[in-house]
Each structure stands twice: as C-alpha cells, then as structure tokens.
# Entry
Amino acid sequence: MKLEALQSALRERNLDGWLFYDHHHRDPIAYRVLGLPEKLMVTRRWFYLVPAEGEPRKLVHKIESAHLDSLPGTKQSYAAWPELFDGIKQMLSSSRDIAMQYSPNNGVFTLSLVDGGTIELIRGMGKNVVSSGDLVALFEATWTEEQVESHFAARDAIDAITAAAFQEIGRRARNGGTNEYDMQQWIVEAFRREHLTAADPPVVAVNANSGNPHYGPEKATAAPIREGDWVLLDIWGKKNVPNSVYYDITWTGFIGNSVPDRIQEIFQVVRAARDAGIKFVEDSIAAGRQISGWQVDDPVRQTITKAGYGKYFVHRTGHSIATDVHGNGPNMDNLEVHDERRILPSSCFSIEPGIYLAEFGVRSEVNMLVRSQSAEVTGRMQKEIVLI
# Structure
C-alpha cells in the first residue's frame, strides 16, 4: 500500500479520508489498492480508514482479527453489532467527507461496490460519502513508465499478429477453407509464441456475426470463412510478465478484390467517428483542458448520428485500459452512463465506435495514451479496409 501517495491524493481533493470496507471479497478494488491477499478468507466485515492526515485505523471482527495486520495503523476489534457501530463512529469521529467505492445513482456500476445499507449507516453518522472514482482511477488505472513499455511491447507483437492473421485467413480461404474458431485458435497459438496473455480469446467474426458486438466463436457453431466474406478481428493481450498492461484493437477486412459499396460506406462513417474522438482528445490535452469520459463519447457519437446510423451504435465509445483489458479508469461513455471521471495523465483508453447491422458490423478500435501535455494513438490506425 502506498500510504503517502494515498494521503496526498486525499489532501489534493479536500477529502478527510478513504474508507475501505469488505466482506466475502465484494470489493476487489480494496484488495488491489491496499495490497491485501486476494485469496484471504473473509466472512466478517472489516473497515480500514486511510485519513488525509495521521495514522490509518482498522476495525476487524475478533475471529478474523489478523486480516489487516499487513497494513499500518491502529486496530480495534468487535464481535457484537453494537461494538461494530461504535467502532465505526470512533474511526470516523474526526472525519466529515469520506470517499468510498460508491457511484451516485449507480452511474459507474463497476465502481458501486459498497451496498446501500452501509452507505446509509455512514451517512446516518453525519458523514458525507462521496465517490472514490477519481481515486480509484489514479491508483488502479494510471501507468508507470515500465507499464508504458509493456504496452508498446504488446502493441508490436499484436499489430504483427493481426496483419499475419489476415494473410492466413486469405491463404486458407483460397485453399480449402477455414472457420472463425480455427482462426481464433491460430491467433491464440501466436500469442503463446510471443509470450502474450489475455483473460479471454480474441474475436474472429464473419458477416452477420460481426454485427454482434460481443460475439465469440464456439468450436461447434463457428461460421466458415470463404471468398467474398467480411471479417472482423478484435484482439487484445498483454505481455506475460507481472504488472503488464493491455493493448486492444479491432480491424476489419474483406476477402476479395473489391469491397462492396455498402460496407465501404459504413466503414468510412466509423473511421470518421473514431478520428473525431482522437482529435478531440489530442486537441484538449494539448490545450491543457481537463476532460472527462463523457466528453470523448460525444463527438464520436455525433458523427455517427449525423450520418444517420445513431441507433446502430449501441455501446460506449471506449473503455479504460490497464492490467485488466477493461480497467478501472474512466470510460468514454455518455450513452450507457454519463461518466464524469477525469481522464488522468499516464492513463490509457480505447476509442472504438461501431455500427452494427443485421448483415454485418463495422468497428474500428485504437488505444490512446494520455500524458501530461499530449495524447497519442499508440498503435497502427486502420485507414482502409484490408483486402484479404
């Protein structure tokens, strides 16, 4: 746990403390930020207060009294519920504004991990509970320089694998055929050779399947890939070393000599929307403007809406990227939620607009790395449909 950094962040935000709370591993964020063992057996409630000033405080059940011993601070134990309530009161006696894993109106639902009853309990003690969203983003989704380098290493490998995958698809399609699942496994094997890892296998989607944003091929039902088919590849991964971060891209291609006009039209709209988001981020960071996730979503979505395809863009513009492919920083989202979390220096996110029709879908995904005075797309950007 980085106590000094945690307390400095609290003071910068004029917060009195960050209150961590868990039982049965309902808050994995707490375990990562505090550095607690993820396999710790936790059947009773524990609380840990990091104050903006002074020594942290622990409140643990008597039968699990050693659970927070790896953390600094004073410890108090309880067994009966009145002891628990009194212990929380004492712990928070000098605090008013308290951050917790909470999101107003459950807006950022991946962050809203503290149950409503506990929020009521803390507020009933006269405390002002605020969202820990920006704090979580700072400690969970900003990168060290070593992590930046791991992202670039993953980029170099995945960009090469993606280009080779399109070539392999073309070769197989013209020499006996292949299917989505077999090509997915070809990419998985390429990952092994390049010492890449991912929580889930990549997406290889053909024709109508590419119109399903969360499609994943199964061995028994995978569609064949043939001449004249439209192919979408969504590939994400990271180097197989501790604390590495993800690289996540989506490219599309057509097996043939000439792309149909309808597909070309949709691709150009998606590309323009993607580029509008990139330009907004680049210009904003270069001008020193603080921006939030929802603001990035807007120019991307407006571009697609103006082209007449707004109802076919059914997901957020992008997501935070960190040690998990979907990190705990702000998402580029003003559709599913109004994400007001600030985009912080040394953070990364995807921009990946898509238009999903019944017969096919188009998505184009890049990663953007934000630094203190600039922002950049970290890998290759697809400018034209790949002719496979």
